[in-house]
Write a structure and sequence with these properties.
Length: 366
C-alpha cells in the first residue's frame, strides 16, 4: 500500500534504500567477532574445521561465491560453493570436518533445504544457516544459525537480504580468522570500523541514483547486456546480470573479465552495453586492458569505478564514480549501483518490478 511504500514507487526501491539500516541492524552491538553470534554451540562446532561447503540458490549463492574469496584469503580455509540443486543430485565426497553453510533469505527454498538434508545424510554434522527468517525450516534444521536483520523482503528481486548476508559472511570470516590465529587484534579493529562505517558509505553510493537513472534510460532499449568483474567482484557482476534479467527481461550475462577473449568478445558490437565493476584493487590494471579489448570492438562501456581508479569518461566510455576503494568489503558497495540500474531499467520498460513474470519470491517446490 501507499503507506508502507512511503516515498518509493516499488518495494524493491524501498528495500534498496533500506540497506544502510538493514546492515546496521545485522551488526551486533558488541563484540562483532565472537562465535556466540552464530549459536551457543558455535565454539565447539567451529573447533577443528578444515574447510567450508556453502550451499545456496540464486542471489544467496552469489553471496557465497563472494565469501569464498574472504575465507580463502583472510582465513586460508578451502571453500567450496555449490548450487544447491546440483549438489543434492551428484555424488560428492563428504568431509565431516567441513562446516556446511546454507545461505537463504527465506530459509524455505526447497533445493537448499534438500541439499542441507542431503549433506546431513552423508554425515555432515557441522551446519550453519545464514537466514533472514528466524522461524524457517533451515534455521530449525541446522546446528547453528545467524539471523540477518534485513526485515521482511517483499520484492522478488533480492537486495537487502544479499548485502546483509555478505555482512554475516564477513563476520564469520573474521571470527574464524581470529580463532585460527590468522587475524591480529589491530586488523580486527580496522574490520570493525569498516563494518560500522558501511551504512554511511552505502548512503554515499545510494546518492548516485540520479546518474544511474540517466543510464537506465539508455539501457531500456537494449536487448542484451554483458557484465564484467574480476576476483571478489566477479560474483557482483553475476548478481548485477541476474537482477537485470529478473526484472527488466533484458538478456544479461556476466563474465570474469579475463575470460572475454575466450569467447564472449565475439558478442561485442556497438549495440552491446558492457557494464564493468571497477574497484581500485590489485586487478585494476588487468581490468583496464580488458576494457580496452571491449573498446577496440566498438563496445559501449558503462563503468562503476572507485574514485581513486582515475578511470574517466571518454569516447564509448561512461563512468559513474563510487567513493574510494573499500577493501575487502567493497562488493557490498559495488552491488548497490547494479541493483539501482536493474531497478530503473525495469521501471523505464514498464515491467512489474516487484512481481516479475514467471517468478516466485520463495521457491518452495523443486
Ligand atoms: C534473487 O533476486 C532471486 N529472486 C532468487 O535467485 C533467490 O535469491 C533464490 O531463489 C534464493 O532464495 P532464498 O535466499 O530465499 O533461498
Amino acid at each position: 500500500s501507499a503507506v508502507e511504500l512511503g516515498p518509493y514507487r516499488h518495494f524493491m526501491q524501498k528495500e534498496i534504500f533500506e540497506q544502510p539500516r538493514a546492515i546496521a541492524d545485522t551488526l551486533p552491538v558488541a563484540e562483532a567477532f565472537t562465535p556466540a553470534h552464530f549459536g551457543a554451540q558455535a565454539e565447539q562446532v567451529f573447533e577443528g574445521i578444515d574447510s567450508l561447503l556453502i550451499l545456496a540458490c540464486g542471489t544467496s549463492y552469489y553471496a557465497g561465491l563472494t565469501a569464498k574469496y574472504w575465507f580463502e584469503s583472510m582465513v586460508a580455509l578451502p571453500t567450496q560453493v555449490e548450487i544447491a540443486s546440483e549438489y543434492r543430485y551428484r555424488d560428492s565426497v563428504p568431509n565431516p570436518n567441513s562446516l556446511v553453510v546454507v545461505i537463504s533469505q527465506s530459509g524455505e527454498t526447497a533445493d537448499t533445504l534438500a541439499a542441507l538434508k542431503h549433506a546431513q545424510a552423508l554425515g555432515h554434522t557441522r551446519t550453519l544457516a545464514i537466514c533472514n527468517v528466524a522461524t524457517s525450516a533451515m534455521v530449525r534444521q541446522t546446528a547453528l544459525a545467524f539471523l540477518t536483520h534485513a526485515g521482511t523482503e517483499i520484492g522478488v528481486a533480492s537486495t537487502k537480504a544479499f548485502t546483509t548476508q555478505l555482512v554475516a559472511l564477513f563476520m564469520l570470516a573474521v571470527t574464524l580468522g581470529k580463532l585460527r590465529g590468522r587475524i591480529a587484534a589491530h586488523t580486527e579493529e580496522i574490520y570493525l570500523k569498516q563494518l560500522r562505517h558501511l551504512p554511511v558509505a552505502l548512503n554515499h553510493v545510494l546518492a548516485l541514483e540520479p546518474q544511474i537513472i540517466a543510464w537506465a534510460d539508455q539501457f531500456a532499449s537494449k536487448e542484451n547486456a554483458l557484465f564484467l568483474g574480476r576476483g571478489l567482484h566477479y560474483p557482483i557482476a553475476l548478481e548485477g546480470a541476474l537482477k537485470l534479467k529478473e526484472i527488466s527481461y533484458i538478456h544479461a550475462e556476466a563474465y570474469p573479465a579475463g575470460e572475454l577473449k575466450h569467447g564472449p568478445l565475439a558478442l561485442v558490437t556497438r549495440a552491446m552495453p558492457v557494464v564493468t565493476v571497477a574497484p581500485n584493487d590489485a586487478l585494476l590494471e588487468k581490468l583496464k586492458s580488458n576494457m580496452q579489448e571491449v573498446r577496440a570492438r566498438g563496445g559501449e562501456l558503462y563503468v562503476f569505478a572507485d574514485a581513486d581508479t582515475r578511470i574517466v569518461n571518454g569516447e564509448g566510455l561512461h563512468v559513474i564514480r563510487l567513493p574510494e576503494h573499500y577493501g575487502w568489503l567493497s562488493p557490498i558497495l559495488h552491488v548497490i549501483p547494479l541493483q539501482l540500474l536493474a531497478y530503473h531499467t525495469a521501471c523505464a520498460r514498464g515491467t512489474d518490478v516487484d512481481k516479475p513474470r514467471n517468478l516466485a519470491k520463495s521457491v518452495t517446490v523443486e
